[in-house]
Amino acid sequence: MKDLVDLPATLHQLNNQRPIKSKRNRWNVAISEFARLTHNPIRAIVEGLNIQPNPSKPLIALSIGDPTTFGNLKPSQETVDAVRQALEDGSGNGYAPANGHLEAREAVARYVQHQGPVTAADVILCSGCSSALDLCISVLGGPGRNMLVPKPGFSIYRTLAEGFGIECRTYDLLPERNWEADLVQLEQLIDEQTCAMVVTNPGNPCGSVFPRAHLEAIVDIAERHFVPIIADEIYEHFVFPGQEFHAVSTLSQRVPVLSCGGLTKRFLVPGWRMGWIIVHDRDGVFGEVRRGLANLSVRILGSNTLVQRALPAILDNTPNDFFDDLVATLHRHAELAYKGIKQIRGLNPIMPGGAMYMMVGIDVEHFPEFETDLRFVEALVAEQSVFCLPGQCFEYPNYFRLVLTVPEEMIVEAVKRLEEFCEQHYKLDNDLLLQQQNGLLNQMTQLLEIKLYVQ
């Protein structure tokens, strides 16, 4: 018994005899390289803006990509009832397999049959579509690799990639071609270290919907160079009349595709964080990728289990009328914004084919007092209390993006204020010439005064 009592003292003595390797004499807690390299370009730009709305006018925020912000767009009753049932019966209170409950994955497999043959084994449930993209980029990329992403494009791709030391190479989307990709440039960007090509369709921030022939051309490039595709299709089916959505995975039997989707936008529940990856393998090319995705899934031990339990009822029972009404509303808002802004001097809107955004070009030469789109946006907020995201948030200067999910009366008012702002600041070519001449005259006068003073 005495030996046991003396054991702690003995251990203490032994520890005191061991050499101490640490030379620390102060706190110095460093962050990881992964954390240091990770950043959100949009947040960095927006936080640097001087946003001071006009106090005499209520703010109209056309900047927020959350369709639920203003309360005018709500999820279907079937969606709400499905979650209520899962909550009341308690079936979603516990953990789920890392890749998701089987019944939920089977429901997703049924829902995405338009993408080609899919089984539950091909589905991985994630915490929103951004989580799906994170897993796809994580499993394919790494230090020294590069990934092709669209420009203008959603900043999350860069945010997720750069932490891993993955270089983002941007391929241009061409406004004069309704935001189709520059295929020549796209192919020239590929080298031996290219790990993936991101294809966003329908697109954010452009609202672009690629024709089938254009998508086939993109897929052909991927096939020629053996580059897998990450298909960001969170806005699938968000297409306006005259447009048609084509899943990338249906266009080739040789190019492997990781398709990312979810409930977020189409079902109007972004806060529920339910997304998924669909693995479209080709001849076993993605065998190791499947195992890698399974490994990565355990990092968060699966997505929201309450929503997982509700997922079969949500996907099976939500009526098509709900989706049709939502698309009709967004199309009406897009036409209203486009027709109104088209009449404003100095602005060039590009009519979207789908999704929930519109890009508007700024004729910067006619707004000489604003050096960049950032200054244009700042002044627009200060004078008219209308806030749109500047194009630099999407690596595309001299544009701004507006969202189409706000109430219709807010779009009408925003267009009215945009017109008032532009009419106040727009300069004709003659005005610009006169302004330049006056500036030159002022410079000459100052030089002359300096010369006389020196003499």
UniProtKB/TrEMBL annotation:
Its cofactor is pyridoxal 5'-phosphate. PROSITE patterns: AA_TRANSFER_CLASS_1. Residues 58-418 form the Aminotransferase class I/classII large domain. It comes from the Eukaryota. Pathway: Amino-acid degradation; L-phenylalanine degradation; acetoacetate and fumarate from L-phenylalanine: step 2/6. GO terms for molecular function: L-tyrosine-2-oxoglutarate transaminase activity; pyridoxal phosphate binding. The keyword Hydrolase does not apply. Keywords: Aminotransferase, Phenylalanine catabolism, Pyridoxal phosphate, Transferase, Tyrosine catabolism. The keyword Transferase applies. Pfam families: Aminotran_1_2. It catalyses: L-tyrosine + 2-oxoglutarate = 3-(4-hydroxyphenyl)pyruvate + L-glutamate. It is an enzyme of class 2 (transferase). One of its GO terms (biological process) is L-phenylalanine catabolic process. The modification N6-(pyridoxal phosphate)lysine is found at residue 265. Its EC number is 2.6.1.5. NCBIfam families: tyr_amTase_E, tyr_nico_aTase. Homodimer. Transaminase involved in tyrosine breakdown. Converts tyrosine to p-hydroxyphenylpyruvate. Belongs to the class-I pyridoxal-phosphate-dependent aminotransferase family. This is Tyrosine aminotransferase. The lineage of its organism: Eukaryota, Metazoa, Ecdysozoa, Arthropoda, Hexapoda.
